[in-house]
Amino acid sequence: MGFRTDQIHAGTEPDPTTGSILPPIYQSTTFVQESIESYMAKGYSYSRAGNPTVAAFEKRIAALEGGTAATAYGSGMAATVAVMLALLDAGAHCVVSDVVYGGTHRFATQVMTRFGVEFSFVDTSDPANVERALRPETRLVFTETPANPTLKLTDLAAVSAVTREAGIPHAVDNTFLTPYYQRPLELGADLVIHSTTKYLDGHNATLGGAVVVADPELDTKLRFVQKSAGLIMSPQVAWLTLQGTKTLSERMDRQSANAMEIARYLEDHPKVARVGYPGLPSHPQHDLARRQQKGFGAMVWFELTGGLEAGKRLMNSVRLWSLAENLGSVESLITHPVTMTHGDMSPAEREAVGITDGLVRLSVGLEDPEDLIDDLDRALAQV
To answer: Which of 183, 184, 178, 212 lies closest to 83, judged by CA?
Structure first.
């Protein structure tokens, strides 16, 4: 089936009892067994170990990513936590992209290190850096592309070739592009992580996460952690996210087109010092984006000539853009990473990876691009 067909139908079918076109929300803690001999005959016993509504979403995201199986979680961070807990024992080493979501950096450096796990944050845009960072005790390579918030790209096929040669799993955070624009498993990765809170939901309505794998043995490890640690997605969230996925491709195409218009506008504005958007020919990795992605996404960053204070004035002046910590929704959002999403990183760590004090991140929504640009133009006039 094609992607648009799968995003609507994969994992679900009309309810056999009533004919309902939408699957039921199985809001039940437990599932009654007919006898000891037939325990788990219907596949479910307790919702922490598995739930029919959640299973339907897991089947859909697995189909969209081209994987063999998926596990769903209570948040995107819970998905990342599950991967680390499943693959990193005490004494293990993990290579991570130097620019990642702030929560990923925080969990790695402030939680996992307490249990004897070591991390190397390297510039994964150069596969040679990944190869040099590997150690005998390396058990995972974790990349995020495009990176949050600098949109730096990692060549997934090249890094996957390095990890495959070394026999180390390669996990990719694919939240920014979704399987509609990027399919890491097809490029050689072993695990794909999503904050389903973002584009897969698309409506600022839920918190959720998912991990899709190519190898059933990895799925078994993840399901053990999911059940044992209780990192589960609720049935209601799974149901809402199933509805969100149905319009994923249409939303992504419209939001990406809007992002391109806004990036071009910002690139020509005299008060804007720099713009980052992989769809612009000026982006240093534009050719890689064209090669490994189907589209450029709806995330844009820029820096004003006036620095931090100018950025604050801008964000306090916009009206249509919402100042908020999220991305991927139909509403356009504006974020200041230094004080919001990446506030737990030290100034030195942020500076080293290009997260400057004046960097402004945009998550472009579905509004009319003319209105979004007019709002930015009015706010920029006050900077």
So the answer is: 212
Is the pLDDT assigned to residue 288 strictly greater than 80?
A: yes
Q: For residue 359, is pLDDT > 90? A: no
DSSP 234-251: PHHHHHHHHHHHTTHHHH
Domain 3-245 has CATH 3.30.70.260: no
C-alpha dist (Å) from residue 314 to 23, 48, 135, 363, 383: 44, 45, 45, 15, 6
Find out whether 99 and 129 touch, Cβ atoms under 8 Å: no
Rounded distance between C-alpha atoms, residue 192 and residue 179, angstroms: 9
Domain boundaries, the chain: 3-245, 248-380
Structure tokens at 126: 């150069």
Cβ-contact 172, 184 below 8 angstroms: yes
d(CA 88, CA 277): 34
Beta pairing class for 191-195 and 170-173:
parallel
- Note the pLDDT tens digit of each residue in 160-175: 999 999 999 999 999 9
Cα-Cα-Cα-Cα torsion 17, 62, 71, 158, nearest 10 degrees, comes to 180
Contact 104, 173 (CB under 8 A): yes
Helices assigned H by DSSP within 116-234:
127-133, 156-166, 178-181, 216-229
Distances (CA, A) of 258 to 197, 332, 368: 21, 10, 8
**What is the pLDDT confidence band of residue 355, given thresholds at 50, 70 and 90?**
low
Q: Which CATH superfamily is domain 248-380 in?
A: Aspartate Aminotransferase, domain 1 (3.90.1150.10)
**Ranges 50-54, 98-102, 220-224: which has the least confidence:** 98-102
Looking at every residue in the chain, the average pLDDT score rounds to 95
Catalytic residues: 48, 101, 173, 198
